[in-house]
Structure formats: structure tokens, C-alpha cells
Amino acid sequence: LLYRWLIQDNDNKEILEPQLNRAFENVIVPLHDNIQSQYKLCLPFHEYSFFNNFLRLLRAMIKKEKDLKNIDAEIIFCIIWSIGAMTNGPDRPKFDQHLRELMNKAGYQFPATETVFDYCVEEKEWVKWSDKLPEKLEASGSDMIVQTVETTRHQYVINKLVMNGISVLVSGVTGSGKTVTLQQYLQSDATLVPNPMTFSAQTTANGVQDLIDSKYDRRSQGVFGPPVDHRAIIFVDDINMPRKEQYGAQPPIELLRQLLSQGGWYDRKKRTFKTFVDVQLMCSMRNPEGPEQ
């Protein structure tokens, strides 16, 4: 997986490879082994996802970096918000302690105060999320959403992913602000074209396909998407809710999985493949703890 990621940036392979080998050997693999055995994760994850999520976020973080000779801060940040983001709140102090021990042994530098979740990277320096909060509120009354450290860091990571074409899944307990956070982000950029939908037990794959097909214009033969220079976001709330069929699958989710893996689907009437460009998913769901999950 790491080798495949490196050859995508072959010009910088010699610079990035030793830095990533050091991170994987001394921090990421030991951290992964510890998390799998001792932590309760917010969602069940395949081993592949741990490393793939880290590499995807790292690609987004260093995409515009001119100097890649030292990306230690970016690597640690991506470990925190890929592997660390999978941990539940009660386990985060334990994750903070373990990550700091591994960083100290490997020679990584990190501020001694607060937790690892309280810092972001700006120009290769560690900055507190609290220092990035806006000084003034821009709305009032019922439209007012007070920015907190939690919402600020979530929107920062979401923006990094979305602007690099990476789909987003946000999970949390009921009332934790998942939907509001995502809706606020979608309203913050005029180039984003949101297509919201809410799944329920009655949602069908054909209904989802028809709704998405109706939203995007034909760009060329068999290719569809939003207006040029725009990015379409299919925002699915409660993505976990569709009823399972007799073999345990959830057809609406399988349809979205095909959109992610194949880039489109077949038109049921014309029986021709429809490819979607500049379209990505942003989804939210409750933690898988209730019987409806």
C-alpha cells in the first residue's frame, strides 16, 4: 500500500520514502496493533482502512507543499486525524499518552501541553485549534452557530478531504451535531453544489439512483456532472438506515459504493454506463450501537 502511494508521486519518492518508513516502523504499526487490541473504535474498520486513511489525508496535507524534506508535523497530524479519529472520546486520553510515548522514542517533536487533539499544523508549526476560532460571530438569532474548537477542527479536516476529492463519513451519537456541522461546511463555499438526501428504512436503490441521475447535466456522451468549475457533494444523512435485504446487504448503500469504486452505474432504461465527474460523497451516521444499525 505504501509503495503504491509513493509511486503516485515518483518525483518525490526518494524524499518521502525514508520519512514514511520511519513513521510506519516506529509509530503507525505499533499504534495500530495497540488500538486493535485495547481500544473501542467508533466503527468497525478493516486493517487496510487504518493505513489508507492516513495516506489519503497525508496526500491532501502535502499537496501544495513546496518543501517536502521535513514533513514530520504533517505526518503526526495525519496520524492523529486518521487513526486517532477512530477512537471514542473516553479512549482519547489513552491514545494521547501512547502516541506521545511513541513520538518521544522516535524523536518527533510535539508541544508538551494539552492533548495531541488540541493542535493543528500551520507552516510546519504546531498551533492550538483554539487560536483559530473567529473573534466575532457572523450571524444572529436562530441562524447563529457558535464556532467551537470541536467544529473548527472538524471543518478543517473535512475541507482538506473534500478539496482533494476524498469522500467523507462522519459518525457520532444522536445530537452530537453531525448534520449541522456538514451543512454549515457546504454553505461556506460557493463552488460546492450540495445534493442532500436522508436515508430511512424505506429508501430504495432505484429511488436513490433516479434522484442522483436527475441532478446532474450531461457533459459529454455518457459523462455527467455539476456545472464546470464546481464540485457536487451528495450529502447523505443517516446513511446506515436502509433496511437489510434477505442476504444482509443494504442496496442503497451498495449503489453508493459502486459510485465510489466504479465512478458511476448503468442507466436502467438505456443500459449504458453513466460516469459521474466532480461528484463525491459526504455522509453521516449514528454510531452502530442500536438495533436499527
Task: Describe the protein's architecture and organization.
Helix 2 runs parallel beside helix 4 (72-80) and helix 2 (13-38) crosses helix 5 (92-106). The chain has 293 residues and is of the alpha/beta class. The model has no long low-confidence stretch (mean pLDDT 88). 40% of the residues lie in helices and 17% in strands. The strands form three sheets. It has a four-stranded parallel beta sheet with strand order 3-10-7-4.
Concise overview:
The protein has 9 helices and 10 strands. With 293 residues, the protein is α/β, with parallel strands linked by helices.
List the topology elements.
Blueprint: H1 2-7, H2 13-38, H3 47-62, H4 72-80, H5 92-106, E1 119-122, E2 125-128, H6 149-162, E3 168-172, H7 178-186, E4 192-198, H8 205-213, E5 217-220, E6 223-225, E7 231-237, H9 251-262, E8 264-266, E9 273-276, E10 279-286
Parallel strand pairs: 3-10, 4-7, 6-9, 7-10
Antiparallel strand pairs: 1-2, 5-6, 8-9
Helix pairs in contact: 2-4, 2-5, 3-4, 8-9
